[in-house]
């Protein structure tokens, strides 16, 4: 598998064939635990700014507050 970068910002990462095969060998319950552990890790390590942006998205708003009129 070849690493591809878009050059459009954001982030990217590479998952090797060996990593995919290791995940494939997990039972459905082990996969769910893996996903839950990743979810908890991201919740515990996010910054207040990230938490605010995620909450705004959850509420269907834009990621950041629009500028106040006349600012």
Secondary-structure map with pairings?
Elements lengths: L16 H9 L2 H18 L2 H11 L13
Give structural notes.
The chain is an all-alpha fold and 71 residues long. It has a domain at 17-58. The protein is 54% helix and 0% strand.
Brief rundown of the structure:
With 71 residues, the protein is mainly α.
Features:
single chain; 71 residues; mainly alpha; 0% strand
Give average pLDDT, whole number.
87
Q: Output the helix-strand order.
A: HHH
Q: What can be said about the biggest beta sheet?
A: none
Distance between the termini: 49 Å
Radius of gyration, whole Å: 18 Å
Structural class: mainly alpha
Strand-residue fraction?
A: under 5%
Shape label: elongated
Q: In which range does the helix fraction lie?
A: 40-55%
